[in-house]
């Protein structure tokens, strides 16, 4: 029996680990603890042994991981500072004088922040969504869905996202062509988000009609956010010129931008520093940070190996090849599973795109490349959006104190629309461009 368990396929082991995480979470365990515990079990189950566990521990010390932890801490302090100094309410109030529809505010704020690639960026927009729900008419899981879904409207094609950059590289398409081909995904996401998430929200138009928004006031209110955005766009190049490793430039840029923005936030209200720092005495804060560590441990488990043994991700891909699954089905299934397992676009692109495009042969037609790009990216993204390990999903749920399983009733239908759009786009591209 033990021998049978040890030699189960990699995808069965990974699926079992996911199920165990959700069960532990439903039973009341901290999500971060549930993820970390099952990551350790998965490492041992994969046969990596002590060497694999050592790999997992070492992965936590990687600069990418501890910088991510610092960025998340800075994001939490930044959000708390905006609340304590009143800037959060001022920003939302200013927008309300200009926008006459609550739904536009709720969806527009996370969509705006979504233009900024940042780890756990939904934590940045969650307080804005909370403030926009001034009459407290929305359930916590509904607010999670709004914040989470509309935060991710642009990652299908926005060239600042690492996953998009990597997809362009693997597909061989030029950036303008890739962007043009992927834009329909955003249209599908907006339509799906409106019909299945936003439509039931009452508009609550202002009695006095739409007011005027002072450009000067808006700039002053949005200055801290603007600093972070500007740093994310410009600073990576500066850090690269200074010799910082490419994989670290975005994290350092975020940390630098958040540090500068915190100075601006607290400059006029230095007394708010002490009250804002109290958030690190809150149990909810450490539950969220525990998730960050848990996700990192799980990622380390998926890439751990003993000696010359293959990683779990690579083993799963080999198993699908061995079972003779058709290429078109593999282009859907492998990215979807990779997205669900990694919870990040960079992860599903890196894990699945090399295999998908290698299977197309040495000289695929333009239509074939375009079709498989849409298919693989759409299904990978669907898996990522449903992943309980997606950091934005997790931090949104933690912030609004919602149970993750209840959010699925809002986001499942829009995700199905994304997959349907991927199939339709692939069929059109293959038929028209071949």
Number of helices: 21
The Rg value, from CA coordinates, equals 22 Å
- Indicate the proportion of strand residues: under 5%
N-to-C series of helices and strands: HHHHHHHHHHHHHHHHHHHHH
Percentage of residues in helical conformation:
over 70%
Categorize the overall geometry: globular
Mean pLDDT rating: 82
| Biggest sheet descriptor | none
N-C termini distance: 51 Å
Structural class: mainly alpha
How many β strands by DSSP? 0
| Poorly predicted segments | none
Assembly level: single chain
What does this structure look like?
The protein is mainly α and about 425 residues long. Among the domains are: about 1-60 and about 285-310, no CATH class; about 155-210 and about 310-434, no CATH class. Helix content is about 75%, strand content about 0%. The longest helix has 30 residues, at about 405-434. The termini are far apart.
């Amino acid at each position: 029996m033990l021998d049978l368990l040890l030699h189960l396929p990699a995808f069965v082991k990974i699926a079992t680990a996911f199920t165990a995480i959700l069960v532990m979470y439903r039973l009341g365990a901290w999500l971060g603890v549930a993820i970390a515990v099952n990551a350790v079990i998965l490492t041992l189950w994969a046969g990596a042994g002590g060497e694999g566990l050592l790999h997992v521990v070492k992965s936590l010390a990687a600069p990418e991981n501890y910088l991510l932890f610092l960025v998340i801490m800075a994001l939490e302090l930044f959000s708390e500072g905006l609340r304590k100094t009143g800037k959060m309410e001022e920003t939302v109030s200013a927008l309300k004088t200009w926008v006459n529809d609550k739904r536009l505010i709720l969806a527009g704020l996370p969509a705006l922040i979504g233009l900024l690639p940042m780890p756990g960026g939904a934590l940045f927009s969650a307080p804005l969504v909370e403030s926009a729900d001034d009459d407290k008419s929305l359930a916590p899981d509904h607010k999670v869905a709004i914040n989470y879904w509309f935060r991710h409207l642009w990652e299908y094609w926005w060239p600042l996202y690492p996953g998009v950059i990597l997809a362009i590289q693997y597909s061989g398409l030029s950036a303008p062509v890739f962007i043009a081909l992927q834009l329909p995904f955003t249209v599908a996401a907006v339509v799906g988000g409106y019909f299945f998430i936003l439509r039931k929200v009452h508009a609550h138009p202002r009695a006095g009609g739409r007011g005027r928004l002072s450009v000067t006031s808006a700039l002053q209110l949005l200055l801290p956010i603007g600093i972070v955005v500007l740093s994310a766009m410009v600073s990576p190049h500066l850090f690269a010129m200074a010799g910082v490793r490419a994989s670290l430039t975005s994290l350092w840029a975020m940390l630098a931008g958040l540090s500068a923005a915190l100075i601006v936030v607290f400059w006029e209200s230095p007394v708010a520093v002490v009250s804002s720092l109290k958030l690190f005495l809150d149990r909810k804060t450490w539950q969220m940070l525990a998730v960050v560590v848990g996700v990192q441990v799980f990622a380390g488990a998926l890439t751990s190996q003993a000696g010359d043994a293959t990683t779990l991700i690579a083993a799963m891909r080999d198993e699908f090849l061995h079972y003779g699954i058709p290429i078109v089905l593999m282009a859907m299934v492998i990215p979807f599973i990779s997205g669900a397992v990694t919870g990040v676009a960079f992860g599903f692109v890196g894990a699945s795109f090399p295999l998908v495009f290698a299977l197309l042969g040495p000289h695929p037609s333009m239509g074939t490349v375009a079709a498989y790009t849409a298919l693989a990216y759409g299904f990978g993204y669907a898996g990522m959006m449903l992943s309980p390990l997606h950091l934005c999903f997790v931090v949104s749920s933690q912030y609004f104190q919602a149970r993750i399983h209840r959010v699925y009733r809002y986001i499942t239908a829009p995700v199905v629309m994304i997959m349907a759009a991927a199939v339709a786009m692939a069929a059109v591209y293959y038929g028209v461009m071949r």
